[in-house]
Design brief:
With 180 residues, the chain is an all-alpha fold. The chain has eleven helices and no strands. Helix 4 runs antiparallel to helix 5 and helix 6 packs parallel to helix 8.
Length: 180
């Protein structure tokens, strides 16, 4: 359509730049299969292209292909160890593939490096809950609930912790806050 015409005008068809832009446009419009194919074409000519790897990893995650997302985010994390986004999504992919203990190990390291990062706390809390460590998870959710503007899901997940711990009244209170 119009987008392809625009890209054809400014980028030679079949060029890596064309496929990269096409991939990100398809990703934006939730056309995941097409986006994935576009990023694959870029990576055929440049297998370590960070932008294409990132697009492909995000696409795999959105398509719920968590095994592929895990591999791709691991490559990205290894390529750029300081990028929090890569580290965090690698851990989320591990959790989605039931590798909770591996995710916990990575998240503990990330939490040590970034003790005030709410997204890291949130992922760590969820992985603790999934691993049956409800008290430790609740401790993390208490920290998240103490920051300005906690997420609604923090109340819900803190409620799950309390429910599992048998603290039903506390759980109900947290569920009400989530619902409100």
């Amino acid at each position: 359509g119009l987008l392809s015409s625009l890209l054809d005008t400014y980028f030679p068809n079949e060029s890596p730049d064309f496929w990269m832009l096409q991939g990100y446009c398809n990703l934006y419009f939730n056309l995941y299969t097409a986006a994935y194919a576009n990023f694959e074409k870029v990576l055929k000519s440049d297998s370590d292209n960070e932008m294409a790897l990132r697009g492909m990893a995000r696409t795999a995650f959105m398509m719920e292909d968590y095994d592929d997302a895990e591999d791709l985010f691991k490559r990205l994390r290894d390529l750029r160890p300081s990028k929090r986004y890569y580290q965090l999504y690698y851990c989320l992919s591990l959790m989605k593939t039931d590798q909770i203990e591996d995710a916990l190990g990575e998240l503990y390291k990330l939490n040590y490096e970034r003790p005030d990062d709410a997204d890291v706390d949130r992922a760590l809390a969820w992985s603790l809950l999934l691993s049956g460590k409800s008290e430790q998870a609740y401790s993390k959710y208490e920290k998240l609930l103490s920051i300005p503007n906690p997420l609604d899901d923090d109340y819900l997940n803190a409620g799950y912790c309390q429910w599992i711990l048998g603290k039903i009244e506390n759980a109900l209170s947290l569920f009400r806050k989530y619902k409100d």
